[in-house]
Write a structure and sequence with these properties.
11 helices; 2 domains; elongated; 15 strands; about 35% helix; about 20% strand; five-stranded antiparallel sheet; six-stranded parallel sheet; Rossmann fold; alpha/beta
């Protein structure tokens, strides 16, 4: 599945290239609970077609009513406009916002086709782009960004950062990898699976995933991991996992982790320190056992656990300590009713 922001921008470009009037709506501020975070975007064409979202649906309906020629409204142009929804409890209820939720939108009318093409071209090349919109006129400037930043609203500009798809590199093409790749794809990641073992590649059945047969450490080197990339080693085979993890730990990948028990992961860290010139400090980035503790047993449940942790790290959300696999299992062992097998 493509990055949702990219889908919105691509659709908006298509509309503008066809000569249709269209607007780009961005969530610029929220108060209380909000269905969509700041920086979320949607596009609306003059005929009422919508891509993306800024709420659960009711606000989109109101925008269509106000700004599409196919409804009671009339499409307008001019400089950007700001709209606020959910100021009162009645309005929040009317627009399907959570109790106490309020959000503010910036509407940009008829974004320039040339600027959309430049932005999408940069994203296709894997660049992170800062888009600055002048509030008085709607004029847009684009700059290469060094790192992802939260949306920023000043007295004169809206500054929003757009990036290419997040990427996930999975080492191993087993059953767990199939479930994880499916979930990652659904969450908008570009997924690559690497496994030199033909017997595993032959049975691979997940579409929209790049499947490679090179050695994992070579793939990691060629992958050029950045802050929008993550690596998960799922083979349980040190010959495949360890060298790939070593390479990944030297990159800016936001998540590097490996499957395995607490004992196996401790042994892996010891191997990396003893045989590969790593230090205790350098292996602290290596996550394992990966996932959050949900009592998962099946490959599908384990994939849910792992995907949840990856998304939490991606979104910079600290996880409670009692959801850490190691902490949770140690607590279970101390329970008086715990029985060993």
């Amino acid at each position: 599945m493509e990055n949702l922001d990219v889908i919105v921008l691509q659709t908006l470009r298509t509309w503008r290239a066809a000569g249709s009037q269209a607007l780009l709506a961005t969530v610029i501020r929220t108060w209380g609970s909000s269905p969509r975070p700041e920086g979320s975007i949607m596009a609306l064409s003059e005929d009422g077609a919508v891509v993306g979202s800024v709420s659960g649906g009711c606000i989109e309906d109101d925008l269509i009513r106000q700004f599409s020629k196919s409804r009671a409204g009339e499409f307008v142009g001019g400089p950007p406009r700001r709209l606020t929804y959910g100021v009162t409890a009645d309005e929040a209820h009317r627009f399907g916002l959570p109790c106490g939720g309020t959000l503010e939108l910036l509407l940009e009318f008829n974004p320039e086709l040339s600027q959309l093409e430049l932005l999408l071209d940069a994203l296709a090349k894997g660049r992170l782009v800062q888009r600055r919109t002048l509030l008085t006129t709607g004029a847009v400037t684009l700059d290469v960004a060094e790192q992802p930043n939260r949306i920023r609203l000043t007295d004169t500009h809206l500054v929003n950062t757009f990036g290419p798809q997040f990427r996930m590199l999975i080492i191993g093409a087993g059953q767990l990898s199939e479930y994880l790749a499916t979930m990652a794809n659904f969450c908008g990641f570009a997924v690559t699976v690497c496994d030199p073992r033909q017997e595993y590649r032959t049975s691979w059945s997940v579409p929209n995933v790049s499947l490679l047969n090179d050695w994992p450490d070579d793939v990691v080197k060629a992958f050029r991991l950045d802050r929008r990339s993550c690596v998960l080693a799922l083979t349980h085979d040190p010959k495949l996992d360890d060298l790939a993890l070593l390479e990944a730990l030297e990159t800016d990948a936001f998540y590097v982790g490996a499957i395995g028990s607490r004992r196996n992961n401790q042994q892996r860290r010891e191997r990396l320190v003893e045989h590969f010139d790593q230090t205790q400090a350098s292996v602290t980035r290596l996550r394992g056992p990966i996932g959050i503790y949900i009592g998962s047993k099946t490959p599908a449940e384990i994939a849910v656990s792992v995907m949840a942790e990856v998304l939490a790290v991606k979104n910079d959300v600290p996880l409670p300590r009692d959801m850490d696999v190691t902490t949770a299992k140690e607590r279970l062992l101390r329970r008086p009713d715990h029985q060993t097998a």
